[in-house]
Amino acid sequence: MLLVKLGGSVITVKSKYRTLRGPDLSRLARELAAGAGPDTIVVHGAGSYGHILAAKHGLSEGARDAAALSAVAQVQRDVRALDLKVLDALLRARLRPAAVPPSLVMRYHDGRLVSFDVGPFRDYLMRELLPVSFGDVVMDTKRGFSIASGDDVILELAKLFRPDRVLFVADVDGVYTGDPKRDRGATRLDVVDASAMGTLALPNEAGQDVTGGLRRKLERMLAIAKHARDVRIINGLARGRLEAAAKGQDVVGTRVVA
Ligand code: IP8
């Protein structure tokens, strides 16, 4: 099995509210159609369809007042709007996507996942459809609502399906010793493991990313690597890489090993 996370930074312009990177999304969908086998699940991030409003209203801490509850409704609607764009792109690429919204299959308590219904994923796969899930606002039995990252969905799927390969499609070539967008001396690492984490100059602060900065994301990937044979971060803006990686080829990127 192949799990693919299309990062929010590669399918949207993360700093501009509800702005799609349409041509990149269409190309990535075509690359998936060319490279991925039938046993594949796609999960996408929320990008600017989720993080900007969720950060503004502090939704990762829950939602109780009227303004926050209105933001829950708006963000749920916005991430679905993005999901429809992803479904459209996959359909144009002649795949058979079927949406599995986390708000219907995941439940949290005080910010922690307490239940995950894998049934719809399994049922669509059995019927030869391509399950597509995404970062979402989900119900939380203590805080009202919580944010489920697409990475959290991937972690649960990895535990249950033990995939051969998990591909995190990002807007950079992999994990660097520093910030590759600012520090020209930053070098890419071929492999990252738990021991390397301590030596990396990773920012702890997440900015507008309500599901954590790079450190938090890498921690999740390390957890995912315990349940998958091969976990990699690759650059989705580099033409052809997703297709090659989906075919099992060894492309430029960073492997995450448990
Ligand atoms: O972009 C975040 O999901 P992610 C979900 O996969 C929301 O971390 C609603 C901000």
Describe this structure in words.
The protein is α/β, with parallel strands linked by helices and about 260 residues long. The protein has a single domain (about 1-255), classed as Carbamate kinase. Helix content is about 40%, strand content about 20%. It has 10 helices and 12 strands. The protein has helices spanning about 10, 20-35, 50-55, 65-90, 100-105, 120-125, 150-160, 195, 215-225, 240-245, and strands at about 1-5, 40-45, 95-100, 105-110, 110-115, 130-135, 135-140, 145-150, 165-170, 190, 230-235, 255. The strands form 2 sheets. It has an 8-stranded mixed beta sheet, with helices on both faces. Strand 7 and strand 8 form a beta hairpin. Helix 2 packs across helix 4 (about 65-90) and helix 7 (about 150-160) runs parallel beside helix 9 (about 215-225). It is globular. It starts with a strand and ends with a strand. The mean pLDDT is about 95. The chain binds Isopentenyl phosphate. Isopentenyl phosphate (IP8) binds near residues 50, 51, 147 and 150.
